[in-house]
C-alpha cells in the first residue's frame, strides 16, 4: 500500500496550467526525489500537495483525500511543507519559530519533548535558541525550517530545494540528517532538488519532471546508474 497517492494531478495559477496530470505513489516511509530543470513545476507540485495551490485530480494520504482541502486541514492531516526559501520568521527567535511549528497540530502535549528530539537532529539550533532566525547562517536557517516542520509530527515531509544557496559540506550534512529523520521517525519524504546526485543518494524512488509532466520514473539506483538518462533528462551528470 502507498502512503501518498497522486492521480492525474492538474494545477496551475489562474488560467495558466503548470501541472498536466501527474500520477505517482510513494510507499510509507520512503523518500521520493522530484528532479527536473528550472520551471518544470516542482515547486507547484509541492504547493498542490500541501493545498497552497488548488489542484484537480486526486491526492490521497493514507487513503484520505486531500484535494480541495485548505492548507490548514492538510497540515493537520500530517503534511509538513518546507517551502523554497525556507519560510522561517526572521525577527523571531529559534525557539519561537520551533514552537510555532506545533501550532497547527492536533495534540499540543509533548511539545517540550519534541523540541529536545529536534535538538538531537540539529544540535546547532540548541545553542542558538534565543537568537533570532535572521541571525543564523543559511544552513542553520534550513535546519530551523526542517525542525519547525518536524514539530508538526508529520506523516509526510515536503522539502523544496533544501540545498539552495548552501555550501556543499552543509548540504551533505543536511541530507544526512533528512535521511536520519526518515529512518527514525518513519516519515515519508518528498524532496525536490536541483542537485540530483544528492537527492538520488538518499531516495528510493525518483521522478523527473519536465514542463509539468513526469518524463521518467524509476528507482533512484537505476536513474543514478544510467548516465545517458542523467544527461538527456537532467542536462548534467549525476
Ligand atoms: N505564483 C505564480 N504565479 C504564476 N505562475 C507561476 C507562479 N509560480 C510559478 N509559476 C510558473 O509555473 C511554472 C513552474 O514553476 P515552478 O513550479 O516554480 O517550477 P520549478 O520549481 O520546477 O522551478 C513556471 O513557468 C513559473 O513561471
Ligand atoms: Mg522551485
TrEMBL record:
Residues 4-236 form the ABC transporter domain. Pfam families: ABC_tran (PF00005). It comes from the Bacteria. InterPro entries: AAA+_ATPase, ABC_transporter-like_ATP-bd, ABC_transporter-like_CS, BCAA_Transport_ATP-bd_LivF. GO terms for molecular function: ATP binding. Keywords: Amino-acid transport, ATP-binding, Nucleotide-binding, Transport. Belongs to the ABC transporter superfamily. This is ABC transporter ATP-binding protein. It comes from Nonomuraea guangzhouensis.
